[in-house]
Fold Pantothenate synthetase.
Amino acid sequence: MQVVHTISALRELLQGQTSVGFVPTMGFLHQGHASLIRQARQDHQTVVLSIFVNPTQFGPSEDFASYPRDLEHDMQIAQEAGADLIFAPDVREMYPEGFATSIEVKGAALPLEGEKRPGHFSGVATVVLKLLNIVGAQSAYFGEKDFQQVAVIRQLVRDLNHPTRIVACPTLREESGLAMSSRNSYFTPEQKSRADVIYRALMASRAAFQQGERNAEAILEAGRVVLAREEELKLEYFTLVDAATLQQVEVLGERDHRLLVAARLFNVRLIDNMGLL
Amino acid sequence: MQVVHTISALRELLQGQTSVGFVPTMGFLHQGHASLIRQARQDHQTVVLSIFVNPTQFGPSEDFASYPRDLEHDMQIAQEAGADLIFAPDVREMYPEGFATSIEVKGAALPLEGEKRPGHFSGVATVVLKLLNIVGAQSAYFGEKDFQQVAVIRQLVRDLNHPTRIVACPTLREESGLAMSSRNSYFTPEQKSRADVIYRALMASRAAFQQGERNAEAILEAGRVVLAREEELKLEYFTLVDAATLQQVEVLGERDHRLLVAARLFNVRLIDNMGLL
């Protein structure tokens, strides 16, 4: 496995490759990332992993500076999972002087995270489009934990007719049910032991659906009861949406639905989601 | 030569092609377009021409509805110049229901046309990026008549790391010096015979430079005198800029400079430009 830091070095190594799978990440890899790499490994001849903590998708009061970084450990996980190449550019390589282009995605990017984190998805869309162009992969792999992000990237790629295929892979969870996330490293062990409340709330809402409830408000109420029992939790949203448009659903119809939740627990911001089936 | 109207048909025909030159146009082709096709023909195995009058780059009071269209004549010019494939999508093919993505380019897109035509370059950048992604060409050819447009597209492609190479080709002119443009068809013959005033103004400013003048204001004054003699002309701007950044220049330095002009003559909007050397 090779690590490169410049676009030109990466392009040289990938020249002539016609079966490339690409896993874009912000590093501090966990088994969720490893599962993406393994899927790319299964589908393609060459697997590229990028590690780039993208400043433009963080708000001014967010955790860009403190976001966890550990390239040595990342290399180990990437190698074990089967990556061939790590692309780890610095900020200047991605945003050289004079950089002046940005992407706006409306539609799936507007509600929820779009409201809570203004500019976030513009930053995500811009860096993902750059990375897709740099790598020129046939497929790119994203974790479903960031459900709305996947919807936004699908919209971006569809709207701009980008040739890379977007593949969403299931969320990996700790034994407690807590969705794996680099940001879980912000928790003390005691705090982390209480973070499964989000998973339990999603499961409670799903159980309500599976027991026959079809009213969105009643399905959500089953989860809200669980969340209300954790006094350290500050809920940002807990909602049931159309899985493609991310628009809130009142009465369940024929289309695919998704529970989405965002909350702060001990001031760590967590997001998670779950289907109803 | 083949004409296709859908993205999927175009992609099928281009599958496996590794030497594609692409000429994006709004149709109503003239010899300026033909020169782009001939350059692409010289450089590549396959030449694709697109014809699409892009609604999102026209302002609400601009000439989208009346923009001249003539596919039959375009096919003849394209064939003679050596195009292999014409891609002529309709608006719904390019902007299907739910389309929600736009590109903002600052930098080279801000002054001049950016001020006179708000939203124009966002529309241009978005459609050009879509077309570059759809065709997947090695090179794309643009006319220098739209000098600022070429600068914006260069910035777009550089900022987003798009793999297509951007090639700018010299402006073709009528015998009178009038830059070839589909919009020249709006003129009556009498009006058209007076439209060379723009070319004569550019030449007068260039002559001032060539005679040793190095003060930007004095160079521009030489052209303004020419423009002032045409009473039907409403000048929008006549300026000397850095050819890369499009920023106005006061005193001529080491960098490449460009005269840029926009004006209405008999209510037809004309733009043109010229180097000093």
User: Anything to note?
Assistant: Strands of chain A lie at 2-4, 20-25, 46-51, 85-87, 101-105, 139-143, 165-169, 233-242, 257-265, 268-275.
